[in-house]
Amino acid sequence: MKQNIGSLDRLIRMLVGLIIIGAGSFHESWWGAIGLIPITTALLRSCFFYRILKTDTNDKSEDLLHMLSK
Fold first, then answer.
1. Exposed end of the chain (fewer CB within 10 Å): N or C?
2. How many other CB atoms are found less than 10 A from the CB of residue 67?
3. Quick count: other Cβ atoms within 10 Å of Cβ 18?
4. What pTM was computed for the model?
5. What is the rounded distance in angstroms from the CA atom of residue 53 to the CA atom of residue 58?
6. Are 56 and 35 in contact (CB under 8 A)?
7. Each residue of 13-54: pLDDT tens digit?
8. Which is higher by pLDDT, 31 or 1?
9. Which DSSP category does 28 fall into?
10. Burial class (CB in 10 A: 0-12, 13-18, 19+), 42
11. 70 pLDDT band (50/70/90 cuts)?
């Protein structure tokens, strides 16, 4: 499986997923389970829709920690 999700994209997906799960938990709704989708894609660093659209945010020369240390 080709990795096509970069560090910043991965961080945003994790945060969005956690927010969705938190909102679902707060409202006592199963809709919060949808938050598992962005979290799973962030952990796998691969997005099916990015493959369809031939998009790649994975820049191997830039790492999130390197970007933050500038």
1. C
2. 12
3. 13
4. 0.78
5. 14
6. no
7. 999 999 999 999 999 999 999 999 999 999 999 999 999 999
8. 31
9. T
10. buried
11. low
